[in-house]
Automatic annotation (TrEMBL):
Protein's name according to its UniProt entry: FAD-containing monooxygenase EthA
Molecular function, one GO term: N,N-dimethylaniline monooxygenase activity
InterPro entries: FAD-binding_MO (IPR051820), FAD/NAD-bd_sf (IPR036188), Flavin_mOase-like (IPR020946)
Keywords on record: FAD, Flavoprotein, Monooxygenase, NADP, Oxidoreductase
Taxonomic source organism: marine sediment metagenome
């Protein structure tokens, strides 16, 4: 049903936040603590808080980062699991919202469709479609001084789902993890999971507990490493120190270790690769062919997959699951025929084939009535875009926890607002220097990144246009460097 009428927010807001997930709730908490005089709202297209952790409901859904860094610095992670279940992460986000009084500032079931900036008014005008309980749609318009985009980086409406030959011939069920049926019964069934990324390595051990057998079918291997389900150092610190102190120490410890291992992986890739493969071989035992765990690319050219306490390896060793590395020739009535001629029998096929990236939550944007192509913009400090005024974009790390960058970004937003108020400025915009060389936004070979290269903004070949995958470098650049750095211009 098309939008039948419009409603307008009566007075302009100071900040309008798009998205009530981990980033959006974190941005609101920063405003509450650091800019208590600012009026803000959060527009959330779903009916609940949580973002990713509310959307994904597939078996075993969990973080692939440790929760001491995926949580915020001010809100200690008190659960025993360092690699947490999706439901616990969602509860954590909800707790922040409730404790901070954020919930009453969220407007649910509002899908943002357009955002237009007026330089004359120094305001964003944002259009959202509100769907009520009866399915009726109504356009609502909001105005704000600053726009904070916390909508993530992938489409909620569709995942990456390649079409396979002869799919209709398959007599069983085909499921995509992003749209998991709540009533799917896989107990005693033969399951084939197509994929080798974080979703696949999560699904296989979770389903293997009750399925007859689970096969992970991968076109090419990924690096998979076992990580402890519980952080022994964190548990010890919590026994002897105040919770906030223990949380801070554990957080910094994990940040430092992650940065160290990433640096080693990039500087000595052959040594690091050999170590990862050796660790996997120790876990799976002598009966599993190591070709399934030997990628052709260097470590961290794509994201490393973590499995808590080696759960995937244990299921492979016990025979509850198996890995096949091959390509698909076609689906058959009873499963999948591979290029090698082998046929995998299946009652259920799960297409864990990845995400579909989008830019800015698919919001159409104009600056003084001129359309904006995000792929033509350059990222300023990894959180603002060239020549787009009063807009902050939250985009986390690919080699560490998303929240580390999200918290730096939300703190910078507050810092920027306070600086503008102190100087009487209404507009802040990073002006692009034509001499800055252009580079891809993400130096990553993963399929979902390569498919979206044209729509993602670019980064530059020098500061402040570079996108650091380094928390320490960003902390210096974002938290301590001058706001008025000569690139950011104010009016």
């Amino acid at each position: 049903m098309s939008a039948s009428q419009k409603q307008f927010q009566p007075t302009p807001l100071d900040v309008l936040i798009i998205g009530a997930g981990l980033s959006g709730i974190g941005a609101a908490r920063a405003l509450t603590d650091q800019c208590p005089d600012k009026r803000y709202l959060i527009l959330e297209r779903r009916e609940a808080i949580g973002g990713t952790w509310d959307l994904f409901r597939y078996p075993g859904i969990r973080s692939d980062s440790d929760m001491y860094t995926l949580s915020y610095s001010y809100k200690p992670w008190t659960h025993r699991k360092a690699i947490a279940d999706g439901a616990d992460i969602k509860s954590y986000i909800e707790d922040i919202a409730e404790e901070s009084g954020i919930t009453h500032n969220i407007r649910f079931k509002r899908k943002v469709t357009n955002a237009s900036w007026s330089t004359a008014d120094a305001l964003w005008t944002v259009t959202a479609v509100h769907t009520d309980a009866q399915g009726n749609e109504q356009e609502e318009t909001f105005q704000a001084r600053l726009l904070s985009v916390c909508a993530g980086y992938y489409s909620y409406d569709e995942g990456h789902r390649p079409e396979f030959p002869n799919e209709k011939a398959f007599s069983g069920e085909i499921v995509h993890p992003q749209f998991w049926p709540a009533d799917l019964d896989y107990s005693g069934k033969r399951v084939v999971v197509i994929g080798s990324g974080a979703t696949a390595v999560t699904l296989v051990p979770a389903m293997a507990q009750t399925a007859a057998h689970v096969t992970m079918l991968q076109r090419s291997p990924s690096y998979i490493a076992s990580r402890p389900q519980r952080d022994a150092i964190a548990q010890t610190l919590q026994k002897w120190l105040p919770m906030q102190t223990a949380h801070s120490l554990t957080r910094w410890k994990n940040v430092a270790l992650t940065a160290f291992f990433y640096r080693v992986a990039r500087n000595k890739p052959d040594m690091f690769k050999e170590r990862l493969i050796h660790m996997a071989k120790t876990q799976v035992g002598p009966d599993v062919d190591m070709k399934h765990f030997t990628p052709s690319y260097k470590p961290w050219d794509q994201r490393l997959c973590a499995v808590p306490d080696g759960d995937l390896f244990h299921d492979l060793r016990a025979g509850r699951a198996s890995v096949v590395t091959d390509t698909i020739e076609s689906f058959t009535e009873k499963g999948i025929r591979l290029t090698s001629g082998e046929e995998l029998q299946a009652d259920i096929i799960v297409t864990a084939t990845g995400l579909k990236l989008n830019a800015m939550g698919d919001v159409k944007m104009t600056i003084d009535d001129k359309p904006v192509a995000f792929g033509d913009c350059m990222s300023y400090k990894g959180m603002m875009l060239s020549d787009i005024p009063n807009l902050v974009l939250t985009f986390g790390y690919t080699n560490a926890s998303w929240t580390l960058k999200a918290e730096l970004t939300s703190n910078y937003t507050c810092r920027l607002l306070r600086y503008m108020d102190s100087k009487g400025h209404r507009i802040a915009v990073a002006r692009r220097d034509p001499s800055v060389g252009i580079q891809p936004f993400l130096d990553f070979t993963s399929g979902y990144v390569q498919r979206a290269e044209g729509m993602l903004p670019k980064q530059g070949d020098r500061k402040p246009w570079q996108v650091h995958q380094n928390y320490f470098a960003d902390k210096m650049t974002i938290q301590y460097a001058r706001v008025d750095d000569g690139v950011m211009q104010f009016q």
